[in-house]
Write a structure and sequence with these properties.
Elements (H helix, E strand, L loop, with lengths): L9 H10 E7 L7 E2 L9 H5 L2 E11 L2 E4 L1 H5 L10 E3 L5 E11 L4 E6 L20 E7 L5 E13 L7 E5 L11 E4 L4 E7 L8 E5 H6 L4 E11 L6 E11 L4 H26 L12 H4 L9 E5 L5 E4 L4 E6 L2 E8 L2 E7 L6 H6 L1 H11 L4 E3 L2 E3 L1 E3 L5 E6 L5 E11 L2 E12 L2 E9 L4 H11 L3 E2 L2 E4 H8 L7 H4 L2 E5 L3 E5 L3 E5 L11 E11 L2 E13 L4 E9 L7 H11 L10 E3 L2 E8 L13 E10 L4 H12 L3 E2 L7
Parallel strand pairs: 6-14
Antiparallel strand pairs: 1-3, 1-5, 2-23, 3-4, 4-7, 5-6, 6-7, 8-9, 8-11, 9-10, 10-13, 11-12, 12-13, 14-15, 16-17, 16-28, 18-19, 19-20, 20-27, 21-22, 24-25, 25-26, 26-27, 29-33, 30-31, 31-32, 32-39, 33-34, 34-35, 35-38, 36-37, 37-38
């Protein structure tokens, strides 16, 4: 939108311009991001040659007293690039000394400079503007210098939360960079601080009334805003007012740190209160958890445990998109309410230990394979690396799974934020979730993700060579595996013992070789001390002869279980077909199954807590005798150790 000089008196224009400044922030000496080419040369000369980035406008309202929109400064809180400065038309820079007063929700800040201009000019505030009068929006439009654009003060509109005050509405056009600039009347008096552009049209814009600035108390920066808190796996939220008075004056960095600390404390408290308010209903508690507590997770792709509209906790599958990482590696990624959930299969040319211990290597591998690019004029550039993470630590969730928490401080010319990732090491690579977040809310986002990972369901999958390497990573093993004896002795013996079920077999049943695949599935199991995550499924597959061995734990159905679940349980209890050791054809495969467990049979006197299905799969057409002999080899040394107490 074209800017034009307003028909103000030349002397008045000069005074307004002399009192108005750009707000800038320094470009980092070195970006944390590495690209495949120096794309910055494609930027316009002024933008690429300027060592600062323009972020808004400020203006003088008295001797060494300046004002801007609070969101202009707030956007720099915790910014790794540095602190904002004022810059005049001659290019001279003025560091901010102290913020003396302001309001986050009313969106204004008043501050001083360490060394103000020697010959300063300032503007007078007018708290009684004339409705429909001519106004001029003054500011650093598009970061290309101070311009003035004409319009009218058209109306007032209540603030969005509860109408505690009214914003000014005006028709003078504004652009990015105008925020924080003065909205002046025909006499050059400030009637408001430019705040925001209307999203649908640029003729009904918003300004902070000068009256709010004039009436604001000295010696504090306040915030009084309604804030909502939630957890993505269920729809319940908590809303409360965030109210704080931060003493002023304070240096910019000190005030920013104090504000971010208050934000983190408030939002952490809200998250904890939300969880406490709903503790009786959160999985694995409450009636809505019963069905899931009587099921196991039989799926390679990660899913999330979420609460549906009827209050039941269910496994929610996600829609994944695959990215080829090369050398048989891939990433499956899906979006879920502001997060990316992923499963990464390690490329074969990367050492397994390096994959678990070198987060930069993993991140660079994904970035290099990603089709995402940056487009500047006719140039296209690709991000190759974010460098080393700022934080690399471990977190053990409530189920005993060991996550790797990685945080990258992503700093470029034009922004500074965080990439937060929780990686769960698994035999074939890693599973996890990640998100981007600003400095405000960084700590509470980590706390929220620590809660969220408890609701991520994942199998542990990989070939036997990958499993061998994974089992050597003792510090990364989840509690259910650390408490399980799993023996992989190539060409000799496969053995599994997790204190609930024990079985083993040799190569006469299935070849035990590095290329063979093994998947462990999990279930949430009630124990005297509470609910625990346990291995509830073992799937061993030989790609050479396409045979598969399955051992699954099946919990007794919930009292409120479906008729289908009750009927299936009854068939298993009675070893009725297809659990009668008679082979059947399913999906062009031969399958033979039997049931082991306490009190199995039609005349069983008690109801067991769980039964185990032992199953062998082979090519279609394999004779019954051969299938039965294989099943006998599987069950010959099998033992179910779970008790048979009634429900």
């Amino acid at each position: 939108m074209a800017a034009f000089a307003a028909p103000l008196d030349a002397g008045l224009q000069q005074q307004v311009r002399a009192a108005t400044f750009e707000v800038v922030i320094p470009k980092p000496e070195r970006e944390s991001v590495r690209y495949d080419k120096p794309w910055h040369d494609a930027l316009p000369y002024q933008l690429r040659s300027d060592p600062y980035v323009s972020i808004g406008t400020a203006f003088a309202i008295g001797p060494n007293r300046y004002a801007t929109a609070m969101h202009v400064l707030q956007g720099c809180f915790g910014d790794a690039r540095g602190e904002p400065l004022l810059r005049d038309a001659a290019g001279k820079l003025y560091p901010i000394a102290q913020i003396t007063q302001g309001s986050v929700d009313q969106d204004f800040a008043v501050f001083t400079l360490a060394t103000p201009p020697a010959h300063s000019s300032f503007l007078v505030l007018n708290d009684r503007p004339e409705l429909n009068g001519t106004v001029y929006a003054v500011g650093n439009a598009l970061g290309e210098g101070i311009v003035m654009r004409e319009g009218n003060y058209t109306s007032d509109t209540p603030e969005e939360d509860s109408g505690r005050w009214k914003w000014l509405r005006f028709s003078a056009p504004i652009s990015g960079g105008n925020s924080g600039g003065p909205l002046i009347d025909a006499q050059g008096r400030v009637i408001g601080i430019v705040r925001a552009m209307r999203s649908t049209e640029n003729t009904l814009n918003f300004a902070v009334p000068a009256a709010l600035v004039m009436a604001a108390p000295e010696g504090r920066v306040s915030v009084d805003a309604r804030v909502g808190t939630g957890l993505p796996v269920f729809d319940k939220t908590r809303s409360a007012r965030f109210q704080a008075d931060i003493p002023a004056p304070q240096r910019f960095g000190a005030l920013a740190a104090a504000y971010l600390k208050r934000v983190d404390e408030f939002e952490l408290g809200q998250l904890q209160a939300l969880l406490a308010d709903n503790a009786a209903d959160l999985f694995p508690r409450g009636a809505g958890s019963q069905r899931l507590l009587h099921a196991n997770y039989q799926r390679s792709a990660p899913a999330l445990i979420t609460q549906n509209g009827s209050g039941s906790w269910v496994l929610t599958p996600l829609n994944y998109t695959r990215l080829d990482l090369g050398h048989e590696g891939w990433q499956d990624a899906a979006s879920f309410r502001g997060y990316t959930v992923f499963h990464r299969r390690k490329p074969d040319d990367i050492d397994q230990t390096a994959w678990y211990t070198q987060p930069t290597l993993v991140r660079d591998t994904v970035l290099k394979a990603s089709p995402s690019t940056i487009h500047v004029n006719n140039e296209t550039a690709k991000v190759l690396s974010l460098g080393a993470p700022t934080e690399d630590s471990r977190y053990t969730d409530r189920w005993g799974r060991v996550w790797q928490l990685r945080s990258w401080r992503v700093t470029t010319w034009f922004g500074s934020d965080w990439l937060l990732a929780f990686d769960l090491p698994v035999p074939d690579g890693s599973v996890g979730l990640e998100t981007r977040v600003s400095s405000a809310g960084h700590e509470v986002q980590i706390a929220r993700m620590k809660q969220l990972v408890d609701f991520l369901a994942a199998s542990y999958d990989g070939n036997l060579a990958q499993w061998t390497g994974f089992l050597n990573q003792q510090a990364l093993l989840p509690r259910p595996l650390a408490q399980t004896a799993l023996q992989l002795d190539y060409d000799r013996r496969f053995a599994f013992d997790n204190h609930r079920v024990t079985f083993s077999y040799g190569p006469e049943l299935q070849k035990i070789a590095p290329a063979g695949r093994l998947r462990l599935d999990f279930a949430h199991v009630r124990e005297p001390a509470g609910v625990a995550l346990e291995v509830a499924g073992v799937v061993a597959y030989n790609p050479e002869d396409h045979t598969e061995i399955d051992v699954f734990r099946h919990a007794a159905p919930a009292a409120a279980g479906t008729e289908a679940a009750q009927a299936d349980w009854k068939r298993r209890m009675q070893r009725a077909h297809p659990f009668d050791a008679v082979a059947v054809t399913a999906n062009e495969r031969q399958v033979i199954s039997t049931i082991l467990g306490a009190a199995v049979g039609a005349d069983a006197p008690t109801q067991p807590e769980a039964l185990y299905t032992f199953q062998y799969r082979a090519e279609s057409g394999t004779p019954q005798e051969q299938m039965k002999s294989k099943l006998d080899l599987l069950t010959r040394q099998a033992q179910v150790n779970e008790g048979s107490e009634g429900r």
